[in-house]
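Bench log, entry 3. Co-assembly request; chain sequences pasted below exactly as received.
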Amino acid sequence: MLILDPDDPAGWREAPAAVPGTPAASGNRFTEGLNPEQREAVEYRGQALLIVAGAGSGKTRVLTHRIAGLIDSREAWPSQILAITFTNKAAAEMRERVESLLGEGASGMWISTFHSACVRILRREAEAIGLSSTFTIYDSADTRTVLKRIIKELDADTMGFTPASAQSKISKLKNELSDVETYARNANMNDPQEAMFLEIFRQYTRRLRAASALDFDDLIAETVYLFRAFPNVASLYQRRFRHILVDEYQDTNHAQYSLIREFTQPVPAERVAEMSEHGFNVRGITDASGGIPGASLTVVGDSDQSIYAFRGADIRNISEFERDFPGAKVVLLEQNYRSTQNILSAANAVISNNFDRKDKKLWTAVGDGEKITGYTGYTAHDEAQFVADEIEALHRAGVAYRDMAVFYRTNAQTRALEEIFVRSALPYRVVGGTKFYERAEIKDAMAYLISVANPLDELALRRILNTPKRGIGPATETALSGFAEANGLSFREAMRSADALGLGPKVTGAIMALARVLDEAAAMLVPSSAGVAAGTNEGASKVSDVLVFLLEKSGLIDALRNSRDPQDETRAENVDELVAQTRDFDRDNPQATLVDFLTQVSLVAAADELDDASGTVSLMTLHTAKGLEYHAVFLTGLEEGLLPHQMSASEPGGPAEERRLFYVGITRARQRLYISLAMSRAQFGEVAVAMPSRYLQEIPEDLVDWKQSPGMATSRGGTRPRALNARPGQGGAWGTRDRDLERFSVTASAKPKAEWANRVTGTVRDNGDLTLEAGDRIRHVDFGEGRVSQVTGEGTKRIAHVSFDTAGQKKLLIKIAPIEKL
DNA sequence: GCTAGTTGTATTTTT
DNA sequence: TACAACTAGC
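Structure output for the full assembly:
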């Protein structure tokens, strides 16, 4: 999926002599069909441009046309462009679109995420900051493991430190570009809490250094430090990139902001002269003083879609852009090309409740469209059944599954949705969530590769030390690390000389054997002498071959295959899938190294996994949904405590950010928007009463057609559990006034149709080999009786198409549906 | 050093 | 619920 940028380091010193073009020369070819504001954003030439782009206002179009225009008019070579996007997928798409606009490849362009761009720079310049160019990138789980060890060793848990709390604090500091020393200077050492945290931070930094590893936040921060500490290195990039474009600017944090500032600094004349002497071509890019002026900066963003404050995103970066870059031009894009007016009106109404924002109203020329459909389920399963039914109805009406998406606030909400979707034989895919690369067996296999690529990475080594089981326990591990420390060796070196430790012969043999396997794998990666001479990877073994070698020689794959744990069968299959992925990687990137593969894996984002060609409904969190659009969108779990989330209440700006999240969700929909909630939701395995989200009231009532409103669901019938009759408590945002509930009763559609049949439970049954055929009558736990009209599929995937007497048409996966034949 | 069983505890969003 | 950490017994 991710394509390695074809930028070629050999061309690094070549002359990208720009032919300065006149703005008008960018031609009409790239402004045709654009509205006046879009056109202005594409054509403007100046130091700084802020494009305030409302949702669906065609910002990707503007960005791609702007880049294509710059290249086509010869104002810039592709290699002088640096475009930062939020995901790798967006980057790949942007590259594709630019290339198709130009009708040719645009190699040398850097279009990537902040993190990918930084890794690329850091690997190239690693030496300068005393890092191995094969440094490992630690993900949050790795960070957590390291912190867990540190906290245990320091007994910091007695002071209330947890890996999670330390992790988020360290992350916040790094996003503010505060390193250990900076923190130490300002810390109040009389406060034992603070002193302890400093020690944790210090240890953490030390260990990452020793392992030649960087965490996600380091990638950005270290690049900034690199540029600041080595102006001559920074100049290389300042000279090269003449046009910097940043998408989703509202979600940049301080470190990213600082990085952009570094990129756009001018290069003073004396350094330009120096560079020129060293053979760097600066022709055509110097100004009258002989220096290189700062690169032009284009940022695109929408403060209403800022949803990453928890990750340090600072909304001031965009709101104070004009102050930061004096003379900046601002272009406002308000015409929406995505959604119907009803959807936009709802979005506008909701977001206008956020005070302290620049007023901005999205509008469209496409017309009102259909009303928003609302539904209140009794349980999460009931809600999920509504979603499944509506998806099926849309599908029958001709909407492809891939054009529909279900959004939710927390990953935990997928469970009920998945259960119902499986039962309903709906093709779906969960985007993000527990990712493939987070599975234990995959992390194990990856740890082998990492140990080979970066021998200093102790975390990876410790992970594989006893995986598969080799009889090397914690005692041996401690002995090894003690030996390493006492002799000034790395953990890996200690393993090689394990025979000097006086351990048992079996354990010693196991350690030495593992060390040997790793050494042999490392030898496979050395390029041939011809390759070394040419600076290529010629002669090195392919990633897939190294992986297969490691899996076999280490015994990992055999251990999984021969295990009697039935789950290990799936694990072995996952490992095989990893091998298949490395084969794909080798095929797609013949020149790439093992480190390239590891980098790519470290930096995949949830949205990168999206496969446009798949014929499935997509399920994802609201955060992942940013930047995407679908014909039909289902916003689920619109309850107090979920959206806004409980945890956001205590955070400053929390409720406003949650509202933006809701806004982002609404504006993903092109034609149809569905909003739903459940009156009760299982948490802790206990059922708790749920209150409608405060944000629901903010949607004008005439825009929503409630098939079952919150009012109806509380005021009707006596068959539901008592808990549901409970009055909303004091302080509940939904209020205690009856008017609030009445509002929904009044707007509720007058047709009390099949909704009562939809009181779906989580019941699952194994029907084994129940055979059904068209014409059979069945009884379903939730839907009552019905007649089978058709049976499709094979084996465990047989699907019954059933017309229920009261609940309508449904598809059921026969094996697990709670049904019986009559 | 390994395994199974038990107890305890935490549950937001992500590059 | 569900998973991590701890304990007991091999």
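Residues 147 and 166 of chain A are 7 Å apart (CA to CA). Confidence is low (pLDDT under 50) at residues 1-26, 716-758 of chain A.
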